[in-house]
Design brief:
The complex is a heterodimer of chains A (559) and B (427). Chain A has 559 residues and is mainly alpha-helical. Chain A has helices at 2-15, 31-44, 58-70, 76-84, 90-100, 102-117, 127-139, 144-153, 166-169, 175-187, 207-217, 293-301, 307-322, 342-354, 359-367, 403-413, 416-426, 432-454, 468-476, 479-482, 491-496, 501-513, 519-534, 538-550, 553-556; strands at residues 220-224, 231-235, 241-243, 254-256, 277-279, 288-289, 399-400, 557-558. Chain A has a two-stranded antiparallel sheet with strand order 1-2. Chain A has a two-stranded antiparallel ribbon with strand order 3-4. In chain A, strand 5 (277-279) and strand 6 form a beta hairpin. Chain B has 427 residues and is α/β, with parallel strands linked by helices. The N and C termini of chain B lie far apart (45 Å). Chain B is globular, with a radius of gyration of 22 Å. The chains are: A mainly alpha (559), B alpha/beta (427).
Chain lengths: 559, 427
């Protein structure tokens, strides 16, 4: 405990400046920690009957953890090995392995991209470059608050952080748009309405709050740098924010300096006349102020000391693995919309701060909790309803797979990924990073048609939106079936080597759904499997069997 | 600076001249539309349908249904007589004018909402947005109340203009994903509507059976709104595949297709007729670019030039095929446009006194409800809002508009109980 107190002090001092070196974050897997989440969940539900789903089986846990931490399902081989493993701490070791893997880095970068850029089309910085920058930072152990700080302060000129400027540049650096999205995505507050007036329905979202945030950004603009010809950010040393409410008949004009919700206004430092600029504004010159309000925003906002930032981050990471935020919708934190479990969110927020925004440590905490390791089925004979919203996590909610996760899992389920990995291994590539990059590069074009079919409109938050055109693609487009080819290590090769129809059914269920076929399923499938085997082209028949499970609801959702 | 009428601007004169010239040619060339095979008998017995034509952006009532020629707000266009005695509409709608005996006008509409999204919500749900509840769109309600059980086509079809702007599953609100819209992008048959060549019907049947059984087992203990939404799409896909012939408008006789117009909206109107004829329950088509904050008059000439002939052809075609008496037609926007003309020769958003057009099933052709004052700045007789419209739609379709839906035992009226049907236009 004393060690963590010292750590706390160290933490606080490091908040004052970004260049103070950080000590390694504390380990977080002591048993009392793991029970705390579940305790806080159940305390809040004390009045409800004490019914909880059974614990998730090993394979249920494995599939869920793989999907949440690496964005794909496990292979049949990985499933068998995990089931056989007798180590009592095997779940923790598995989580450690997944979090340390390259697949996690790629998946996490993808999730952060979708969260922060919401599928905006590339205009200045390509998604490829931006995701690579995110991966480099995640791989290098940069904590999430540092990453956000870089994103908010990047000017597009400095090479190391140029891709991070995508957040602003690909929004045209339009101050109102950037302010709105910073509030939504980093502070969990949808202040959109508050640009022109106090929010009509949310008392907490005042125009003053919005304008205070805007004041940090209003001096920044986008321009083409005359020397490098790149699109960069420039910032003036003057420019104030005044505002009028459109609802105010008296049209009283108000002013505000830079101000984050809940904090005091930050006055510009007094600078001697003539020293306001490092590079003074002139024609075709990128002006550089001595004091940058935008840099100041990044320092003050993106750190644990600023509660709305940490709280929003904790809530979103919880939603990522638990299927729904403790505050819902994710961008509606305000007093009239409290978290479903206020003490739990308080606890998670302080944990995230204590871990110094080490996302791996935080995710591990969640994934090893009892709440996460609960089945998605209500206990039989109980009246537990299956809500989509208002879940109390007495059982794990169903989580629809995102478009990329579905596509990658389909590649794994069809056996394409196994075949590809086999060919890469035989290519004697020893560096793991390089192998993952090659694999991802080969996956991308095969994933693309599936992702295109499943994804939503750009600029909107990710939403599960089943449409008939999506299943027409899955059903009638030859794309999925073409992935089920016969080659070393692929599912089709394994099936072709099996003679017992039940073994074939079992191999397909394990490869696609990460579970054993039930007796009922074995019996139902026997006729279909035998028909395929005895036909002139057994593989064509097997393909349809594999397809039937990929098209099923069980595959579409993480359960 | 206010735009005056009869301004004598050359560009308007030119437009009107060429426009009238075009009309003369059209009159000469028009004849009866279609082969006129009247299926009056058997189709009349079928279920009720709805055609919603949405003019996105806010069509100007002064340039369409409620012209004020000579008024300071009236703009340069005249009013013309129609096939409905005593009813005059804008000269920009000559073809529609000859169908007015099938159509009714509501001229006293005041929806008090000038925002695109909120105005659209009122016109699609019959109520203003409320914080505590989402109301379902008309298409979802009609799909639920009118679509026969086991109907192969999805109940609510939305033919979207190119590149997005489709409706979302959220439109069905508390009715559930079964009644969500199915978007038909760009009026073409959905992609991948054909089975791949390598897959026989028998193999498809077998694999779908396995999939269905798998879903039955999995969902026995895990059914939820989202899983329903997903499994529902497979049923919709099958329905669409069975009816894919409906999407092939190339099989239509060339002269009829020409009458509809060889542009997107014309093709969508033709597709709408085929879908309705094929027993679709609710079809929505959209025409865009009516948000004329500048150059209001020129843009309306262009847009209504497309709309007018296609819409009139569609109304007549439905009539010729005996479908009109069982199909409710409505033509709506988010709102109308300001009587005041701005300095860009535009009209801005205006919801205080505007119009919609209805027709077909249960509607008295040639009738008018509501009146605005001389300048079109105020409703002076029979003021109604979105709620009245919804009562009217349901009544016209033979439904009890005071009914409730029950959502978790809570009664929710299908139309705003503070309002009532517009009897003046109902049969």
């Amino acid at each position: 405990m004393r060690a963590s107190l010292i750590l706390c002090i160290f933490c606080c001092s490091s908040l004052l400046g970004a260049d103070v070196p950080r000590p390694a974050p504390a380990k977080t897997t002591s048993a009392p920690q793991l029970d705390r989440i579940d305790r806080l969940l159940s305390e809040a539900d004390a009045k409800l009957p004490d019914q909880r789903a059974a614990a998730a089986s090993d394979l249920e846990f494995l599939r869920r953890a793989y999907l949440d931490l690496t964005g794909t399902i496990p292979s049949a081989g990985e499933a068998r090995a995990f089931e056989k493993d007798r180590d009592p701490a095997k779940r923790e070791h598995c989580v450690d392995q997944l979090l340390a893997s390259q697949a996690h880095v790629w998946h996490m970068a993808e999730q952060l991209d979708i969260w922060w850029m919401e599928r905006r089309t590339d205009t200045v910085v390509s998604t490829g470059d931006w995701r690579r920058w995110l991966r480099e930072n995640l791989q290098g152990g940069e904590p999430l608050d540092f990453i956000v700080r870089d994103i908010l302060s990047a000017d597009g000129l400095v090479k190391e952080t140029q891709p991070a400027a995508r957040f602003s540049l690909d929004r045209g650096s339009e101050p109102n748009l950037v302010a709105r999205d910073i509030a939504r995505l980093f502070l969990g507050a949808n202040l959109q309405c508050a640009q022109c007036h106090d929010h009509p329905r949310v008392e907490d979202y005042t125009q003053e709050k919005y304008q205070g945030l805007l004041a940090f950004l209003v001096r920044t603009r986008q321009m083409t740098d005359p020397k490098t010809k790149k699109m960069v950010l420039a910032e003036k040393a003057d420019g104030e924010t005044t505002f009028v409410s459109v609802f105010d008949k008296a049209k009283v004009q108000k002013k505000t300096g830079p101000k984050l919700p809940g904090l005091k206004e930050i006055p510009d430092p007094a600078l001697a006349k003539g020293t306001e600029y490092i590079v003074a504004p002139a024609k075709d010159v990128r002006e550089v102020p001595r004091y940058s309000r935008r840099s100041r925003l990044s320092e003050v906002l993106a750190q644990g000391g600023y509660d709305p930032f940490a709280r929003n981050m904790a809530n979103r990471l919880w939603a990522m693995v638990m299927g729904r935020g403790l505050v819902f919708p994710l961008d509606m934190h305000h007093p009239a919309n409290p978290p479903s479990h206020p003490e739990l969110l308080d606890h998670l927020t302080s944990e995230l701060i204590r871990m110094q925004f080490d996302h791996r440590a935080f995710l591990k905490l969640l994934v090893l909790s009892q709440a996460y390791q609960r089945s998605s089925q209500p206990p039989s004979g109980t009246a537990l309803t299956r809500p989509d919203s208002g879940n109390r996590w007495r059982m794990m909610p169903l989580k629809p797979l995102g478009p990329e996760v579905f596509a990658r899992s389909a590649l794994q389920a069809t056996g394409w990924t196994d075949g590809e990995k086999a060919s890469l291994r035989s290519g004697a590539k020893s560096v793991e990073e390089g192998v993952e990059e090659t694999l991802q590069g080969r996956m991308a074009p095969l994933m693309a048609p599936i992702v295109r079919s499943l994804k939503g409109q750009p600029g909107l938050a990710e939403e599960f939106d089943p449409r008939v055109d999506q299943v027409l693609f899955l059903g009638n487009n030859a794309h999925l079936l073409n992935l089920m080819g016969d080659r070393p290590d692929s599912l089709m090769r394994r099936l072709s080597g099996l003679t017992d129809p039940d073994a074939i059914t079992e191999e397909i269920h394990l490869s696609v759904l990460t579970r054993h076929a039930t007796a009922e399923e074995l019996s139902d499938w026997r006729a279909a499997v035998n028909t395929a085997k005895s036909s002139s082209q057994p593989q064509a028949g097997f393909k349809q069997l594999i397809w039937a499970l990929i098209a099923s609801a069980e595959f579409r959702f993480s359960s | 600076m206010m735009k005056t009428t009869g301004c004598g601007r050359a560009i308007h004169g030119l437009s009107r001249r060429s426009f009238l010239g075009g009309m003369a040619a059209a009159v000469a060339g028009s004849g009866s539309l279609g082969s006129g095979a009247a299926f009056a008998g058997d189709l009349a017995a079928k279920h009720k349908r709805v055609l919603m034509v949405f003019l996105a952006g806010g069509v100007s009532q002064l340039e369409t249904w409620d012209p004020k020629p000579g008024a300071i707000t009236g703009g340069p266009f005249r009013a013309i007589a129609t096939s409905a005695p005593g009813v005059h509409i804008s000269e920009l709608l000559p073809y529609t004018a000859r169908q007015m005996h099938h159509l009714a006008l509501v001229r006293g509409l005041n929806t008090a909402e000038d925002d695109h999204g909120k105005g659209s919500y009122i016109m699609h749900t019959g109520r203003p947005q409320e914080p505590a509840i989402e109301y379902p769109h008309l298409g979802s309600v009609c799909s639920k109340l009118l679509c026969p059980e086991g109907s192969p086509l999805p109940g609510y079809l939305h033919v979207t203009p190119g590149g997005g702007g489709g409706s979302s599953p959220a439109d069905a609100a508390y009715l559930g994903p079964r009644f969500a819209p199915v978007n038909i992008g760009e009026g073409r048959a959905p992609q991948n509507i054909d089975r791949p060549g390598s897959l026989t019907a028998e193999a498809d049947r077998m694999r779908q059976e396995l999939r269905r059984k798998a879903d039955e087992r999995f969902l026995a203990t895990r059914r939820a709104a989202r899983t329903e939404a997903y499994t529902q799409t497979w049923d919709q896909a099958k329905g669409l595949m069975d009816k894919k012939g409906l999407f092939d408008i190339t099989t239509e006789p060339d002269r009829l297709a020409a009458g509809y117009g060889k542009h997107d909206f014309g093709r969508h109107c033709l597709l709408a007729r085929r879908l309705l004829e094929g027993d679709a329950t609710f079809v929505k088509i959209t025409h865009t670019n009516y948000d004329t904050h500048h150059e209001n008059f020129d843009f309306h000439i262009e847009q209504l030039g497309e709309f007018d002939r296609s819409f009139a052809t569609l109304v007549d075609d439905l009539h010729q095929r005996g479908l009109l008496s069982s199909t409710l037609i409505l033509v709506a926007s988010e709102f109308g446009r300001t009587p005041n003309v701005n300095h860009l020769y535009g009209r801005d958003h205006w919801s205080k006194a505007w119009s919609v057009a209805l027709g077909g099933c249960g509607i008295v052709g040639g009738s008018v409800a509501g009146k605005t004052n001389g300048k079109g700045t105020e409703v002076v007789d029979r003021q109604v809002n979105g709620g009245h419209l919804f009562h009217t739609y349901f009544k016209a379709l033979g439904l009890d508009s005071t009914k409730n839906f029950f959502v978790e035992q809570r009664p929710i009226p299908i139309a705003d109980p503070k309002t009532e049907p517009i009897k003046e236009i109902l049969a």
